[in-house]
Amino acid sequence: MNALEVGDLRVRFGEVPAVRGVGFAVAPGEVLGLVGESGSGKSVTGLAVMGLLPARATVTGSVRLRGAELLGGTDRELSRVRGRDLAMIFQDPQSALTPVHRIGDQIAEAVRAHGGTTRSRAWRRALDLLDLVGVPDAARAARAYPHQFSGGMRQRVMIAMAVAHDPAVIIADEPTTALDVTVQAQVLEVLKTARQATGAAILMITHDLGVVAGLADRVLVMYAGRVVESGTAEEVFYRPRMPYTIGLLAATPLLDGGPPVPIPGGPPPSGALPPGCPFEPRCRYASAPCRTTEPSLTERAACHNPQRPQPRPAEGPGVRRTRSADVILQVTGLRRAYGAVQAVDGVDFEVRAGETLALVGESGCGKTTTLMEILALAAPQAGRIVVLGRDVSALPRQARQELRRDLQIVFQDPAAALDPRMRIADLLAEPLRAHGVAEPEVERRVCELLGLVGLDPDFAGRFPRGLSGGQRQRIGIARALALRPRLIVLDEPVSALDVSVQAGIMDLLATLQLNLGVAYLIVAHDLAVVRHLADRVAVMYLGRIAEIGSVEAVYGTPAHPYTRALLSAIPVPDPRLERGRSRVLLPGDPPGPARAPAGCRFRARCPLHTELGAADRERCAAEEPRLRPAGAGAGADQSVACHYSEGLIR
Length: 650
What we know:
- The protein contains 23 helices and 22 strands.
- With 650 residues, the chain is α/β, with parallel strands linked by helices.
- The chain folds into three domains: 27-52 and 75-85 and 169-315, P-loop containing nucleotide triphosphate hydrolases (Rossmann fold), CATH 3.40.50.300; 93-164, no CATH class; 327-528, P-loop containing nucleotide triphosphate hydrolases (Rossmann fold, 3-Layer(aba) Sandwich), CATH 3.40.50.300.
- An eight-stranded mixed sheet has the order 16-17-18-13-19-20-22-21, with helices on both faces. A six-stranded mixed sheet has the order 6-7-8-3-9-10, with helices on both faces. A four-stranded antiparallel sheet has the order 2-1-4-5, with helices on one face.
- Helix 4 crosses helix 5, helix 7 packs parallel to helix 8 and helix 15 (424-434) packs across helix 16 (439-452).
- The relative contact order is 0.09.
- The model has no long low-confidence stretch (mean pLDDT 91).
């Protein structure tokens, strides 16, 4: 008997169809991946199965758990099932945990909700569950509060609560989306452990095809509220038939492949679906039947013209440029402390004209603080920042204002970065007017900027709420380009976007740089994205640079154990490769800049450190490594802060 069976599931919010006839089954111990862009209906499907949709939603069809029908049950009836036989791991563990209760009490509460056990037994069970999901020192951790845990540790707690009663089905809704790549790898291992311990069927809802490749036995691809392709992981990844699936795979950035290829356009609004195939306006293979008749799901794909994927272009986005002699930005010995917290501790790098430098690393490594120090255009606490040959610590107010023309920023969240009360034309005109540009020139420049970022002139009259996420980010980029800057700082510019939209923004950034010669300083946690955007990369750990060099050198011959761990943790959208490769799983989380250890800051998590002799380990504990040339076998411009990196690059 299947653990979960869903038949002809339909969800409407008023007159808007969100899920349209979805059906699937999941066997005990099986992992089913549910993938698609934002708005495809995948999360609504999971919430409908759990019975957690708001009262205004109309749900029809069938949801059977171990043969028992759940749809139509009262909240009291569903409450007997939720958490015991049917569990859910939510996307944001911080919102899912009560901030004023201890971790152990919250897990024990989940145990007692269905078990009828004593408080002492529930507490012991909570400790066992924390140990199962790999939380160190479970007895101490159980007495902590959620705010004292990192994002990865909070997600482990959510997994512990989900498996408390050995459920038949676990629904995991984007369980790794907001996590660093190293923590994501840890959480995925914990999910595998949970499946082995409980034998539960898992419905994995995610947009990350690499995660699906590593975990899922079968995959459903959703678009416009329907399943448009279904098959085993090998069938969907190696022999996709639906052009939408092929587009998602081609849009995914790879560490060792060609550039991601964007899918044109965006998904249709749920309340205004076209009469034929919803994907037809974006499909390069569309024919006459596609415009009039929506295809049924037959032979794995809902498509009138099933296709085979074409190979990607072999080269990356543009040819890597020879480094210019013109230094746009120079940072030397930069330090920034907040009380006892040394957020940035002696950072050195430079950015030259027309090139891209990426700062990468886990949350808390200091990369965003570094950006903020540069953007302030003020004297740093320690060190030196030189922009276009001018030391910012000595700039008078007027000179600082003039220099801001040449230094602009694109923020991570395009929705939060744009004033919702202003039309697009005014948003683009604002920096021009602030710097005294004449009004006729402002109007001309607004039209020019929209064209630069691939948007029609009629976007000028719209408000941000009427734009998709990708379109809003294009407006953010256009606004940054308004004053023709020499350097643009980009803080996680594509992390909030679907993979298909992400590919389009990456292509736009590469094209703009090639045509305008602008330099980029990028902060990002996705090393696959950085691989296709950057010329050079600096890997940061606890406020310092652990490794820096060209993308080819750092990705090809990583010299620092931390860099190797980051690269190995990136999920690859290839089932055979992803499941067969070995990973460097770092223990725990970074200790935090307030507790940075003496000597090498990475040594407590370093896999190389455990292999060293006693004398070498003592050196790591006593002497902090400084950046130096990586040596034979490394790139010519590659530097590393590790005492014993030579053994890694032989």
